[in-house]
C-alpha cells in the first residue's frame, strides 16, 4: 500500500490517520469508528483507507478514537513533527464486544478488586511460552540489529506485531528481549521498529506477545491468531502484580477468567 497522500481535495491535507485492526491485521475505515480532535469542531473526511483532516493549525492536538468493538485510543499529535506524507498509523485493539470468528484462540478476562469492584484501565501482557508454538526462529540479524532473517514461520507476521525473543528451552523471564515489526522486506526478512540491544539472538524463537487493558467493566479480551500445537502455555502479567499467572489454552476453545487483584 502506498501511504503517500495524493488526493484531489479543495484543501491541503493536514493529517491522515490509518487504522489497523490488530486481530485481522487489515487497515480499516468504519462508520462506527469516531475520530475527534479534543476541544475542536474538526471532523475527518473518511476515505477508502484512512481518515483525513484538513485546515489544521501547526500546533498540538489530542486525538480521540472511539468504537464499540475496539478499545478507546487517545494520543497527542504535534503537527510540526508529522512526516512529509502527513500519515499516522494506529493499531486498534479489540474490545470484549469484538466479533471474533468461531473457534478463535481467545481469553476473556474479568479483573476485580478484593471487594468485587471492576478495575478499569489495567494493563495486561499475555505471551505464548511453549517453544513448539513459536511463530518463527531467528537465523541472523542485519543492519544495525534492526533486521531479522527468519525461518520456520508459522502463520502471518504483520506490521505492529510484537514478540518475545526466547532461546529454546529457556525459562520465560522479565529479562527476555521484545521486538516489534515495522514491516516485511521480503520473504523471511523483517524490519524492526527499533534495533535489538542484544545481538546474541541466533537460533532464538519468536513468541507472540499481546498487550491490552481492561475496559470500564474491568474486562478485556486477549487473542492469538494461531497455534502450532493443539494446546500451549500462556503467561499472563497483570499491571502492579509481581508474579505472572500461567494458563493452558487449547486451540479454538475460549478461556474465561475472573481474577482478583489488590
Automatic annotation (TrEMBL):
Protein name, UniProt field: Uncharacterized protein
Amino acid at each position: 500500500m502506498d501511504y503517500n497522500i495524493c488526493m484531489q481535495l479543495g484543501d491541503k491535507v493536514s493529517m491522515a490517520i490509518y487504522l489497523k485492526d490488530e486481530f485481522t491485521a487489515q487497515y480499516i475505515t468504519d462508520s462506527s469508528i469516531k475520530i475527534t480532535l479534543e476541544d475542536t469542531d474538526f471532523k475527518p473526511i473518511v476515505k477508502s483507507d484512512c481518515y483525513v483532516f484538513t485546515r489544521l493549525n501547526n500546533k498540538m492536538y489530542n486525538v480521540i478514537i472511539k468504537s464499540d468493538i475496539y478499545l478507546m485510543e487517545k494520543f497527542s499529535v504535534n503537527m510540526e513533527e508529522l512526516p512529509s506524507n502527513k500519515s499516522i498509523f494506529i493499531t486498534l485493539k479489540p474490545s470484549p464486544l469484538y466479533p471474533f470468528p468461531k473457534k478463535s484462540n481467545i481469553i476473556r478476562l474479568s479483573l476485580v478488586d478484593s471487594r468485587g469492584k471492576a478495575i478499569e484501565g489495567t494493563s495486561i501482557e499475555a505471551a505464548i511460552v511453549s517453544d513448539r508454538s513459536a511463530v518463527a526462529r531467528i537465523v541472523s540479524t542485519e543492519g544495525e540489529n534492526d533486521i531479522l532473517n527468519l525461518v520456520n514461520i508459522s502463520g502471518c507476521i504483520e506490521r505492529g506485531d510484537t514478540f518475545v525473543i526466547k532461546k529454546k528451552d529457556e525459562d520465560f523471564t522479565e529479562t527476555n528481549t521484545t521486538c516489534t515489526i515495522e514491516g516485511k522486506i521480503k520473504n523471511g526478512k523483517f524490519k524492526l521498529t527499533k534495533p535489538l540491544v542484544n545481538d546474541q539472538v541466533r537460533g532464538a524463537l519468536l513468541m507472540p506477545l499481546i498487550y491490552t487493558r481492561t475496559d470500564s467493566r474491568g474486562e478485556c479480551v486477549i487473542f492469538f491468531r494461531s497455534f502450532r500445537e493443539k494446546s500451549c502455555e500462556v503467561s499472563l502479567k497483570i499491571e502492579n502484580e509481581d508474579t505472572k499467572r500461567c494458563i493452558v489454552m487449547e486451540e479454538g476453545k475460549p478461556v474465561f477468567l475472573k481474577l482478583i487483584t489488590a
